[in-house]
Input
Amino acid sequence: MNKTKPPAKPGIIQPPSVDRPTDAGRRKALLAGLGAAGGAAAAGLIAPARALADPANLPPNVADWSKVLGPGVDAAPYGVPSKFEKTVIRRHVDWLTATPESSVNFTPLYALDGMVTPNGLCFERHHGGVAEVIPDDYRLMIHGMVDRPLVFTYQDLKRFPPQSRFYFLECAANGGMEWRGAQLNGVQFTHGMVHCVQYTGVPLRTLLEEAGVKPKAKWLLVEGGDSAGMNRSLPLDKALDDCMVVYSMNGERLRAEQGYPIRLVVPGFEGNMWVKWLRRIEVGDGAWMAREETSKYTDLMPDGRARRFTWEMDAKSVITSPCPELPCKQKGPQVIKGLAWSGRGKVARVDVTVDGGRNWHQARLEEPILSKCLTRFYLDGWSWDGNPAYLQSRVIDDTGYVQPEMAALQAVRGVNSIYHNNAIQTWRINPTGEVENVRLA
Ligand code: MTE
Ligand code: CO
Output
């Protein structure tokens, strides 16, 4: 995920095409009774979506779907979204990676409400494709500086007292393409390497206590069972604090692409450490200096040295509506919606500006506000007058940390970084209502 190629602007995603039956004759007859709505639409007083509606389905008529029996139970034994939502999918950027096996796709943040990401829309990041682990053959080994090396089966892990917790996972490379300027025209692509899920599993501390960690131990090596064998060093104090070994997300078993049957959860830390298809935990007294913490996931600073072990995800926020995928369809009142999060704790406050930072307005935060979790915010009272507007959001977390402007971030980190871009994002609303990713000087 560290390739930089020429800027490309994947187009704005079109709204779902409407799959509707056509019955021109009947419609013509009904159009006759349309006077009021038709006139208002022509005068531009009705939102385009409503103007597209088939009058045959509108009051006082009885809509098509009210006249027939629908499919019965079990028509879809495992439920899927409405066909009218078929454009709401994970998407990738063609030029970003050479192969789909070592690649990433993005969560459609513009289409989501609340703080939870549905399982089928959680972005995927794989270094060697999705491992198909057979649950009966699954084993987790804990060894190294322990009193009792242990091997757990999948069923063993489910016998421990479980706990459920909501956490966000953000890839350190989220926004990595935006360091030198606005590049990708969509919140799905600029910020979509994040998801927020309720995990169920066992505290890692419980398993380590079962094995008995030797007093001199300081680090763990956590390793995946995929073909990439992805591994990272994890400080023991973090492992004993809030890490989890999980088998469920949002109430059901992990999806294969999220590490079925077992993944590691490392709250607030960069996504790379959340090892999927977890197969081995080695306990030791020093960091392993694995590939993913030396050659990758370090930040090259202006003086030529690199920051290492930058695990915590700094506080970040973004407006998810309006955004390039959700243009302003009409003037007048608009609810500005967004997401904020911090790898260090809770979101304390979010401010929103519509004039590029001249005036800031405190946003309304939606409960629950949980530590190391996405928090939904709204600005309710804004009315768009049709002039260009520059929308930004800025989060402050409960440590007092304030999300920086890109200029401030670059003043410290330079322009060689890929990871840990948490700069304030600007969306420009054009007089047409279209929304663009821009960088304010
Ligand atoms: N674990 C294994 N075994 N293999 C991987 O390729 N990718 C890591 C991490 N864990 C990876 C892995 C990276 S870089 C990220 S950002 C997260 O998983 C992505 O998790 P997700 O696919 O559930 O979104
Ligand atoms: Co990642």
Observations:
- The helical segments are 24-31, 35-42, 48-51, 154-159, 187-191, 204-211, 236-241, 406-413.
- Residues 1-46 have pLDDT under 50 and may be disordered.
- The first strand starts at residue 103 and ends at 104.
